[in-house]
Amino acid sequence: MTLINTCMLMVILQPLFVYLALFKQPEFPPITDTPVKNDDALFLFVTPGVSVFYFSQFFEALLYLGGVWVLGLLLAVILASKAKKTITKDDAISFTIAGFIFFGIIKLIAMAIAYFFMDDPAEAAQTAIPPANDESVFSVSQLFSVDYLYNALWPTLYFLVLMIITLVIKVIEHHSSFKKAPSGLLITLCAALAGIAPLAGEAYIVGIIANFIIFIIFCSLCLKIDVKKDPSAGAIGLFFGYILMMGIGFSVICKVIYELFFN
Protein backbone atom coordinates (compact mmCIF):
# COMPACT_ATOMS: atom_id res chain seq x y z
CA MET A 1 0.00 0.00 0.00
CA THR A 2 1.40 3.40 -0.95
CA LEU A 3 1.99 6.05 1.68
CA ILE A 4 -0.81 8.32 0.40
CA ASN A 5 -3.34 5.45 0.52
CA THR A 6 -2.22 4.55 4.05
CA CYS A 7 -2.68 8.17 5.13
CA MET A 8 -6.19 8.29 3.65
CA LEU A 9 -7.07 5.01 5.38
CA MET A 10 -5.85 6.37 8.71
CA VAL A 11 -7.84 9.59 8.18
CA ILE A 12 -10.98 7.49 7.70
CA LEU A 13 -10.19 5.53 10.88
CA GLN A 14 -9.57 8.55 13.12
CA PRO A 15 -13.27 9.04 14.10
CA LEU A 16 -13.43 5.34 15.04
CA PHE A 17 -10.25 5.67 17.11
CA VAL A 18 -11.69 8.71 18.90
CA TYR A 19 -14.90 6.81 19.66
CA LEU A 20 -12.99 3.83 21.08
CA ALA A 21 -10.72 6.06 23.15
CA LEU A 22 -13.33 8.43 24.58
CA PHE A 23 -16.81 6.92 24.35
CA LYS A 24 -16.68 3.11 24.29
CA GLN A 25 -17.98 1.72 27.57
CA PRO A 26 -15.95 -1.09 29.22
CA GLU A 27 -17.45 -4.56 28.82
CA PHE A 28 -17.23 -5.11 32.58
CA PRO A 29 -17.79 -1.82 34.45
CA PRO A 30 -15.71 -1.41 37.65
CA ILE A 31 -17.47 -2.25 40.89
CA THR A 32 -15.70 0.47 42.87
CA ASP A 33 -15.09 4.14 42.09
CA THR A 34 -11.37 3.51 41.56
CA PRO A 35 -10.24 4.94 38.18
CA VAL A 36 -9.64 2.24 35.55
CA LYS A 37 -6.86 2.52 32.99
CA ASN A 38 -8.26 3.48 29.59
CA ASP A 39 -6.65 0.79 27.43
CA ASP A 40 -8.81 1.77 24.45
CA ALA A 41 -6.85 5.03 24.24
CA LEU A 42 -4.15 2.99 22.53
CA PHE A 43 -6.08 3.29 19.24
CA LEU A 44 -5.75 7.08 19.32
CA PHE A 45 -1.93 6.91 19.43
CA VAL A 46 -1.02 4.10 17.01
CA THR A 47 -1.03 6.17 13.81
CA PRO A 48 2.57 7.51 13.97
CA GLY A 49 3.90 3.99 14.57
CA VAL A 50 2.67 2.86 11.14
CA SER A 51 5.53 4.91 9.64
CA VAL A 52 8.00 2.09 10.47
CA PHE A 53 6.56 0.13 7.53
CA TYR A 54 8.01 2.79 5.21
CA PHE A 55 11.60 2.45 6.35
CA SER A 56 13.21 3.86 3.19
CA GLN A 57 11.06 7.01 3.48
CA PHE A 58 10.59 6.93 7.24
CA PHE A 59 10.76 10.66 7.97
CA GLU A 60 8.39 11.53 5.11
CA ALA A 61 5.97 8.86 6.35
CA LEU A 62 6.33 10.11 9.93
CA LEU A 63 5.54 13.66 8.78
CA TYR A 64 2.39 12.66 6.90
CA LEU A 65 1.11 10.11 9.43
CA GLY A 66 2.01 12.46 12.28
CA GLY A 67 -0.18 15.11 10.64
CA VAL A 68 -3.05 12.63 10.38
CA TRP A 69 -2.49 11.75 14.03
CA VAL A 70 -2.69 15.44 15.02
CA LEU A 71 -5.98 15.63 13.10
CA GLY A 72 -7.35 12.81 15.26
CA LEU A 73 -6.07 14.46 18.45
CA LEU A 74 -7.76 17.75 17.51
CA LEU A 75 -11.03 15.89 16.96
CA ALA A 76 -10.60 14.27 20.39
CA VAL A 77 -10.00 17.70 21.96
CA ILE A 78 -13.18 19.04 20.34
CA LEU A 79 -15.22 16.15 21.76
CA ALA A 80 -13.43 15.99 25.12
CA SER A 81 -16.25 17.80 26.96
CA LYS A 82 -18.69 15.04 25.94
CA ALA A 83 -16.30 12.13 26.55
CA LYS A 84 -17.16 9.29 28.92
CA LYS A 85 -13.51 8.34 29.50
CA THR A 86 -10.35 10.37 30.12
CA ILE A 87 -6.83 10.09 28.76
CA THR A 88 -3.83 10.99 30.90
CA LYS A 89 -0.48 12.34 29.77
CA ASP A 90 1.20 9.09 30.82
CA ASP A 91 -1.26 7.14 28.66
CA ALA A 92 -0.44 9.31 25.65
CA ILE A 93 3.33 8.86 26.01
CA SER A 94 3.26 5.13 26.78
CA PHE A 95 0.77 4.26 24.02
CA THR A 96 2.66 6.27 21.41
CA ILE A 97 5.91 4.46 22.25
CA ALA A 98 4.05 1.14 22.34
CA GLY A 99 2.73 1.81 18.83
CA PHE A 100 6.26 2.19 17.42
CA ILE A 101 7.44 -0.93 19.27
CA PHE A 102 4.43 -3.01 18.18
CA PHE A 103 4.67 -2.14 14.48
CA GLY A 104 8.47 -2.39 14.64
CA ILE A 105 8.19 -5.98 15.88
CA ILE A 106 5.72 -6.80 13.11
CA LYS A 107 8.13 -5.26 10.61
CA LEU A 108 11.03 -7.39 11.88
CA ILE A 109 8.91 -10.55 11.81
CA ALA A 110 7.83 -9.83 8.24
CA MET A 111 11.43 -9.24 7.18
CA ALA A 112 12.57 -12.46 8.89
CA ILE A 113 9.82 -14.54 7.26
CA ALA A 114 10.56 -13.03 3.86
CA TYR A 115 14.29 -13.64 4.33
CA PHE A 116 13.97 -17.34 5.17
CA PHE A 117 11.21 -18.22 2.70
CA MET A 118 12.45 -16.31 -0.34
CA ASP A 119 15.25 -17.58 -2.55
CA ASP A 120 16.91 -14.19 -2.97
CA PRO A 121 17.66 -12.27 0.30
CA ALA A 122 17.90 -9.03 -1.65
CA GLU A 123 14.41 -9.63 -2.97
CA ALA A 124 13.23 -10.25 0.59
CA ALA A 125 14.66 -6.94 1.73
CA GLN A 126 12.97 -5.12 -1.15
CA THR A 127 9.68 -6.84 -0.35
CA ALA A 128 9.86 -5.92 3.34
CA ILE A 129 10.91 -2.33 2.69
CA PRO A 130 8.72 -0.47 0.19
CA PRO A 131 10.84 1.59 -2.23
CA ALA A 132 10.60 5.36 -2.07
CA ASN A 133 8.82 7.06 -4.91
CA ASP A 134 11.41 8.99 -6.89
CA GLU A 135 8.80 11.48 -8.04
CA SER A 136 8.16 12.53 -4.44
CA VAL A 137 11.81 13.40 -3.70
CA PHE A 138 12.58 17.09 -3.90
CA SER A 139 15.54 19.21 -2.98
CA VAL A 140 15.09 21.53 -0.01
CA SER A 141 15.16 24.62 -2.22
CA GLN A 142 12.55 23.15 -4.58
CA LEU A 143 10.34 21.96 -1.72
CA PHE A 144 10.14 25.46 -0.21
CA SER A 145 10.06 27.42 -3.46
CA VAL A 146 7.14 29.81 -3.90
CA ASP A 147 6.05 28.23 -7.19
CA TYR A 148 5.98 24.69 -5.75
CA LEU A 149 4.17 25.73 -2.57
CA TYR A 150 1.57 27.70 -4.54
CA ASN A 151 0.91 24.87 -7.02
CA ALA A 152 0.59 22.35 -4.19
CA LEU A 153 -1.34 24.43 -1.67
CA TRP A 154 -3.23 27.10 -3.62
CA PRO A 155 -6.64 25.80 -2.37
CA THR A 156 -5.43 26.29 1.21
CA LEU A 157 -4.23 29.82 0.39
CA TYR A 158 -7.64 30.83 -0.98
CA PHE A 159 -9.34 29.08 1.93
CA LEU A 160 -7.25 31.16 4.34
CA VAL A 161 -8.28 34.34 2.46
CA LEU A 162 -11.95 33.30 2.72
CA MET A 163 -11.62 32.70 6.47
CA ILE A 164 -9.98 36.11 6.95
CA ILE A 165 -12.83 37.77 5.02
CA THR A 166 -15.33 35.89 7.18
CA LEU A 167 -13.64 37.10 10.37
CA VAL A 168 -13.62 40.70 9.09
CA ILE A 169 -17.35 40.47 8.30
CA LYS A 170 -17.97 39.03 11.78
CA VAL A 171 -16.14 41.98 13.38
CA ILE A 172 -18.16 44.45 11.27
CA GLU A 173 -21.38 42.71 12.31
CA HIS A 174 -20.36 42.94 15.96
CA HIS A 175 -19.94 46.72 15.75
CA SER A 176 -23.01 47.26 13.56
CA SER A 177 -26.62 46.14 13.55
CA PHE A 178 -27.41 43.81 10.66
CA LYS A 179 -30.78 42.09 10.49
CA LYS A 180 -29.29 39.35 8.29
CA ALA A 181 -25.76 38.35 9.26
CA PRO A 182 -23.93 36.64 6.36
CA SER A 183 -21.01 35.48 8.52
CA GLY A 184 -22.89 32.43 9.82
CA LEU A 185 -23.52 31.22 6.27
CA LEU A 186 -19.87 31.87 5.37
CA ILE A 187 -18.61 29.86 8.35
CA THR A 188 -20.87 26.95 7.34
CA LEU A 189 -19.55 27.17 3.78
CA CYS A 190 -15.96 27.25 5.05
CA ALA A 191 -16.61 24.21 7.25
CA ALA A 192 -17.62 22.23 4.17
CA LEU A 193 -14.83 23.61 1.96
CA ALA A 194 -12.11 22.81 4.53
CA GLY A 195 -12.18 19.16 3.52
CA ILE A 196 -13.28 19.49 -0.11
CA ALA A 197 -10.87 22.24 -1.30
CA PRO A 198 -7.63 20.15 -1.01
CA LEU A 199 -8.96 17.81 -3.71
CA ALA A 200 -7.99 20.49 -6.24
CA GLY A 201 -4.39 20.82 -4.99
CA GLU A 202 -1.32 18.61 -5.21
CA ALA A 203 -0.72 18.16 -1.47
CA TYR A 204 -3.93 16.54 -0.30
CA ILE A 205 -2.99 15.40 3.22
CA VAL A 206 -1.11 18.61 4.05
CA GLY A 207 -4.01 20.65 2.67
CA ILE A 208 -6.55 18.79 4.81
CA ILE A 209 -4.49 19.31 7.97
CA ALA A 210 -3.77 22.97 7.19
CA ASN A 211 -7.41 23.76 6.40
CA PHE A 212 -8.55 21.97 9.56
CA ILE A 213 -6.23 24.07 11.73
CA ILE A 214 -7.11 27.30 9.91
CA PHE A 215 -10.83 26.66 10.32
CA ILE A 216 -10.54 25.80 14.03
CA ILE A 217 -8.57 29.01 14.72
CA PHE A 218 -10.80 31.41 12.79
CA CYS A 219 -14.07 29.72 13.78
CA SER A 220 -13.03 29.98 17.44
CA LEU A 221 -12.34 33.69 16.99
CA CYS A 222 -15.75 34.22 15.39
CA LEU A 223 -17.50 32.29 18.17
CA LYS A 224 -15.71 34.35 20.83
CA ILE A 225 -17.17 37.47 19.22
CA ASP A 226 -20.68 35.95 19.29
CA VAL A 227 -20.33 34.87 22.92
CA LYS A 228 -19.82 38.49 23.96
CA LYS A 229 -23.42 39.24 22.93
CA ASP A 230 -24.98 35.85 23.65
CA PRO A 231 -23.24 33.41 26.07
CA SER A 232 -25.13 30.48 24.53
CA ALA A 233 -23.90 31.23 21.00
CA GLY A 234 -20.86 28.97 21.43
CA ALA A 235 -23.11 25.88 21.21
CA ILE A 236 -23.37 26.33 17.43
CA GLY A 237 -19.70 25.36 17.30
CA LEU A 238 -20.82 21.71 17.51
CA PHE A 239 -22.84 22.22 14.32
CA PHE A 240 -19.84 23.74 12.54
CA GLY A 241 -17.68 20.85 13.78
CA TYR A 242 -20.19 18.35 12.38
CA ILE A 243 -20.17 20.05 8.97
CA LEU A 244 -16.37 20.13 9.05
CA MET A 245 -16.02 16.40 9.72
CA MET A 246 -18.71 15.54 7.15
CA GLY A 247 -16.83 17.57 4.54
CA ILE A 248 -13.54 15.84 5.36
CA GLY A 249 -15.23 12.42 5.25
CA PHE A 250 -16.80 13.16 1.86
CA SER A 251 -13.45 14.42 0.58
CA VAL A 252 -11.60 11.29 1.72
CA ILE A 253 -14.18 9.02 0.07
CA CYS A 254 -13.81 10.95 -3.21
CA LYS A 255 -10.01 10.76 -2.99
CA VAL A 256 -10.03 7.01 -2.29
CA ILE A 257 -12.37 6.36 -5.25
CA TYR A 258 -10.13 8.46 -7.51
CA GLU A 259 -6.93 6.72 -6.40
CA LEU A 260 -8.41 3.22 -6.73
CA PHE A 261 -10.29 3.53 -10.02
CA PHE A 262 -9.04 6.55 -11.95
CA ASN A 263 -5.33 6.92 -11.12
Question: Can you describe this structure in just a few lines?
Answer:
The chain is an all-alpha fold and 263 residues long. It folds into 2 domains: 3-136, no CATH class; 140-261, no CATH class. It has helices spanning 3-22, 58-78, 89-117, 121-128, 140-143, 146-175, 183-196, 204-229, 237-261.
Largest sheet: none
Q: Average pLDDT across residues? A: 77
Number of strands: 0
Helix percent reads 55-70%
Note the beta-strand portion: under 5%
How many structural domains does the protein architecture include?
2
Q: Rg to the nearest angstrom?
A: 22 Å
H/E element sequence? HHHHHHHHH
Low-pLDDT segments, ≥5 res: 121-140
What order do the helices and strands come in, and which of them pair?
Elements: H1 3-22, H2 58-78, H3 89-117, H4 121-128, H5 140-143, H6 146-175, H7 183-196, H8 204-229, H9 237-261
Helix pairs in contact: 1-2, 1-9, 2-8, 3-4, 6-7, 6-8, 7-8, 7-9, 8-9
Describe this structure in words.
This protein has 263 residues and is mainly alpha-helical. The chain folds into two domains: 3-136, no CATH class; 140-261, no CATH class. The chain is 67% helix and 0% strand. It has nine helices and no strands. It has helices at residues 3-22, 58-78, 89-117, 121-128, 140-143, 146-175, 183-196, 204-229, 237-261. α1 packs antiparallel against α9 (237-261) and α8 (204-229) runs antiparallel to α9 (237-261). The chain is globular and about 75 Å long.
